[in-house]
Amino acid sequence: QFWYEQKLGEKLELKIGRTNPGEDFASFSCYFQNLSFCGAPPGNLNGDYWQNWPVSQWGARLRYDVNDHLTLKTAAYEVNPRNLEKDFVIGHFHGATGALIPVEAEWRRGDDDGRVGAYKVGGWVNTSNGDDVFYDLNRRPIAITGLEPLRRNARYGVYLNIQQQVTGTSEDGKSVTGLSVFLNATQADRATSTTDNQIAAGLFYKGLVPWRPNDILGFGVARTNVNGRVAKGQELDPTRPAVQDAEYTSEFYYSVHPTRWLELRPNVQFVHNPGGVHDASDVAVLGLKGAITL
Asked: What DSSP element (H or E) covers 233?
């Protein structure tokens, strides 16, 4: 990343340069290892144009603090398929297909009373053309004709992110101890999105064990849906071995600090209907995530 941020008066702020949408819109922590609960959900559903970290995009973001509790944001990011190439560069200067324009309103409640919360609602439009997942250019099923897909003029979606502290204490607007719950819901357009919606919910509990105040327990469950129009096309394809539906995931982790500079998060994940395929065997995963503070 390479960006510059500047205050324009007391309430308005500009950020411009090489960044990514998930840093400022639909942003969510990445304490979990499974991507159903890690990073901005729109980027996990439509990663071909909403690119989460570590991929970055050229863009500019405006933030307006209406008051201490309400913030409005909008931005414009370059949509460039070349960002997904594996070469290491600061950024590509040609190859753009359009612009990603997100908007968001965030309301924050609480201060130091142990009940802080953040409520975000937003949406986005991608001005690039996109392939229809079902129709060909003559508006007949691609699975039958095998022709080029119908081109759609834009792609879009909406989202809701909620995180609320239920018990414990807070400081400087952040939870210090206790239980917090979250809910993330995202809906992308059904014309062009292979995975069109996702809902995830869960909890964090910091300081569950009194003599280990910095340990964090996390648990989440999620449903990621394969677009019904994609499934309809798969049903029409006689060579298709399975029709996709929804994938269900869950994860439990416990974060410990063996030292001040090291954090370890062992986890257990369970995936039902992997890839949205009913006949696929369920999967259990043992994982470990770590972080070093320099």
From this structure: helix 228-236
**Domains in the chain, please, with CATH?**
2-292 (2.40.160.180)
Distance CA 56, CA 10 (A): 28
The three-point CA angle 164-170-175 to 5° equals: 50
What number of helices (H) and strands (E) belong to the chain? 3, 17
With contact defined as beta carbons under 8 Å apart, do 31 and 265 qualify?
yes
User: Lowest-confidence range among 80-94, 179-193, 256-270?
Assistant: 80-94
pLDDT at 165 over 70: yes
Report the alpha-carbon distance of residue 1 to residue 204 in Å, rounded: 29
pTM, to two decimals? 0.90
What does the DSSP 8-state code read for residue 139? S
Rounded distance between C-alpha atoms, residue 294 and residue 279, angstroms: 46
The continuous run of DSSP H or E covering 205 comes out as: strand 195-206
Q: Are 177 and 169 in contact (CB under 8 A)?
A: yes
Q: Which two tokens stand for residue 245?
A: 């539906």
